[in-house]
Write a structure and sequence with these properties.
9 helices, seven-stranded mixed β-sheet, Rossmann fold, binds S-adenosylmethionine, globular, alpha/beta, 7 strands, 219 residues
Length: 219
């Protein structure tokens, strides 16, 4: 994982925040071993906080990998909680099931293999929190669907606004009108413009993990 924050800030966060659970530490190691791009502990902790603040019962993830972000969300959900994981890769979802079963075997978790946007269409809303962490080229398309099914006071979070398949300088340049260097950069810049210019949403870009865009309806 490439981080936006410098080493000194990273060290402060590691010292100031509670240690992640043993299971999350194991999942971090698993991600590192696989060289798999999880969103990391700082973003994960922030997602859990957002879910708690939104009093979330229902969470939908576009792009769940092996369940790392879901493992941050799950403890924040109420007893009626429902968590939907999506991924193209069935092996990722099988690993997610193993990890999340250990975290809470009774939790209502759905593992949906296939395209996340098509899966979202099959579910009835509303969702309290939605995480976008799938193809960057399709973030804006996903957001257009999610707005229809977002609970009042709900939150949409998009990862990789600053790092990952993009970098901060390239996204900044694209937002200033430059030609995007690739499809991922074009997708992230289009997403930021989409949420920034929507009067029905309040959005803040937050430099945690690889950069998050956090949006909530204004009314
Ligand atoms: C960055 S990883 C997800 C990481 C996960 N949220 C975490 O923090 O550990 C992105 C995942 O999205 C999946 N993916 C990409 N585009 C997708 C799509 N359109 N539908 C479903 N899964 C997708 C990939 O297979 C990959 O596992």
């Amino acid at each position: 994982m490439s981080l936006v924050l410098g080493d000194d800030v990273e060290s402060l966060l590691a010292a100031a925040n509670p240690q992640p659970s043993a299971l999350l530490a194991e999942m971090t190691e698993h991600g590192d071993d696989r060289n798999f791009p999880t969103l990391g502990p700082d973003a994960g902790r922030f997602l859990r906080l957002l879910a708690t603040l939104a009093d979330a019962d229902r969470v939908f993830e576009f792009g769940s990998g092996f369940g790392y972000s879901a493992a941050w969300f799950l403890p924040a959900l109420g007893s009626e909680g429902e968590l939907v994981l999506t991924d193209y890769d069935e092996q990722n979802l099988a690993e997610a099931r193993e990890f999340l079963d250990r975290l809470d075997p009774a939790a209502d978790v759905h593992y949906e293999a296939g395209d996340a946007i098509e899966t979202f269409e099959r579910y009835d809303g509303p969702f309290d929190v939605v995480l976008l962490d799938h193809d960057k080229e399709r973030y804006a398309e996903a957001f257009d669907q999610v707005v229809e099914d977002l609970a009042p006071g709900g939150v949409v979070v998009a990862d990789n606004i600053m790092q990952g398949p993009v970098n901060t300088a390239d996204v900044t340049d694209a937002l200033r009108g430059g030609d995007p260097v690739d499809d991922a950069t074009a997708g992230v810049a289009a997403y930021v413009e989409r949420v920034r210019d929507d009067p029905d949403f309040e959005t803040a870009v937050v430099p945690l993990g690889e950069g998050l865009a956090v949006s909530t309806p204004t009314r």
